[in-house]
């Protein structure tokens, strides 16, 4: 994983268990930093008290570690803001939810 698109591709494998849509299409990925030997990802949740926050962080970290070169430091953290809104949904997520694009 050398680029932000690589990280986003990996994170697309993290599904929110409540809605079955990945964190990228849900618009939960707020920050991605890629540097030699390090990947950092900041996620936001759909609500401040999201019961899935620990699961989503752990799953994102697990997939990123699996995809990263040995010795790469991986840090996934929750950001308190910005607040999530449905405007962050990708067209694919809107379609899955039956919302207008």
Describe this structure in words.
This protein is an alpha+beta fold and 101 residues long. The protein has one domain: Fe-S cluster assembly (FSCA) (GMP Synthetase, Chain A, domain 3). Helices cover 30% and strands 19% of the residues. The protein contains three helices and three strands. The chain has helices spanning 4-11, 53-67, 91-97, and strands at residues 29-35, 38-43, 73-78. The protein has a three-stranded mixed β-sheet with strand order 1-2-3, with helices on one face. The longest helix is centred in the middle third of the chain and has 15 residues, at 53-67. It starts with a helix and ends with a helix.
Please provide the ordered H/E string of secondary-structure elements: HEEHEH
Low-confidence stretches: none
Percentage of helical residues?
25-40%
- What is the level-2 CATH architecture name? 2-Layer Sandwich
Strand content: 15-25%
Number of helices in the DSSP assignment: 3
- Rg (CA only): 13 Å
Largest sheet descriptor: 3 strands, mixed
Distance between the termini: 31 Å
- Taken together, the total number of domains comes to 1
Q: Assign an overall shape.
A: globular
Q: Structural class per helix/strand content?
A: alpha+beta
Could you tell me the CATH topology label: GMP Synthetase, Chain A, domain 3
Instruction: Give a count of the beta strands, DSSP E runs of length 2 or more.
Output: 3
CATH class assignment: Alpha Beta
Brief summary:
With 101 residues, the protein is of the alpha+beta class. It is 30% helix and 19% strand.
What topology emerges from the helices and strands here?
Elements: H1 4-11, E1 29-35, E2 38-43, H2 53-67, E3 73-78, H3 91-97
Parallel strand pairs: 2-3
Antiparallel strand pairs: 1-2
């Amino acid at each position: 994983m050398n680029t932000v698109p690589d990280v986003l591709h990996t994170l697309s494998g993290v599904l929110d268990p409540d809605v079955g849509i990945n964190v990228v299409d849900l618009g939960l990925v707020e920050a991605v930093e890629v540097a030699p030997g390090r990947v950092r990802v900041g996620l936001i949740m759909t609500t401040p008290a999201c019961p899935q926050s620990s699961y989503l962080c752990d799953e994102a970290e697990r997939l990123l570690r699996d995809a990263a070169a040995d010795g790469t430091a991986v840090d996934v953290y929750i950001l308190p803001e910005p607040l999530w809104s449905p405007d962050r949904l990708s067209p694919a997520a809107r379609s899955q939810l039956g919302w207008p694009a």
